[in-house]
Amino acid sequence: MLSSRIDSIEFRGGKFYVKRDDLLDNCLSGNKLRKLYTLTQTPQDHYHKIISYGGAQSNAMYALSCLCKQKGWEFEYYTKTLPQYLKDGAEGNLELSIDNGMKLCEVEHSDFNAKVQALQEISQEKTLVLSQGGADELAKEGVALLAKEINTWKQEEGVKNLTVVLPSGTGTTALYLKAFLDADTEIYTAVLVGDEAYQLQQWKRLSDGPYPKIFKQHDKKKFAKPYDEYLQIYKELKEKTGITFDLIYAPRTWLQLLENLNPNATTILYIHTGGISGNETMLQRYAHQQKGRR
Predict the structure, then answer these.
(1) % of the chain exceeding 70 in pLDDT
(2) Whose CA, among 168, 213, 220, 233, lies 20 to 30 Å from 196?
(3) Which residues partner with 49 through β-bridges?
(4) Would you call 269 helix, strand, or coil by DSSP?
(5) What are phi and psi for residue 231, nearest 5 degrees?
(6) Which residues of 255-280 are buried (b: 16+ CB within 10 A; e: fewer)?
(7) Of the candidates 188, 201, 233, 267, which has an alpha carbon nearest to the alpha carbon of residue 18?
(8) Which domains does the chain have, with CATH numbers?
């Protein structure tokens, strides 16, 4: 049974709670373990191969590589043609995934969408094709367990007005949380990939709703790019709370949370969705960016 603790923290004058899903597993951490929970419970002989696709430093890619290593399954992963520095030497989640036995398949940028479509049409015995980021109905069971933990904590603590906040890549975790959380619990998510319309499109592929609330975006930021304000709040959170958050999803989510929600008006529970294995390469990018300004 999955279960993660909830920490109480003080930050920028407010009290918040953090669901520590990042501590669930050293490799399969955060919402990736929630989304892959059904596969962790699947008998080893049920599959021979898992196929997926996405970014070259994807947290989901790394989690799948860990799972497949544990299960003894082949793992085939498709990504767009790597930049030269990664061709010269894999690092971060990519290096960790290859070390776990992942077979990496590069596809030209112009051919990638067609390749994804072809992958989704694969129908082979004991082979599972999993959508990018684990955006699949398979995620429902594990996320339902997360919602159950939150509902139980809310009841035991006597929380009357709860708002759950988490970042979204594909938005799958937020979508299924909305389905299983108590009806009077609010859920907000920060969309990191694309805009609100794109996120709604992703949700409609999996469900007819209801859908989580999305923080309004007042500026456009490129996904997984280094921004000074992201690094600043990452460092501040680590210093003030003692918790290391990820550098891609958490900073924008915390900034939007602080801008839109009042911790004195509602009890705010932030779900730490893991992903800190990618921090090493992001910190390198920040260091390179700062060096270039000198």
Answers:
(1) 99
(2) 233
(3) 74, 127
(4) strand
(5) -65, -40
(6) bbbbeebebeeebbbbbbbbbbbbbe
(7) 267
(8) 6-26+139-292 (3.40.50.1100), 32-136 (3.40.50.1100)
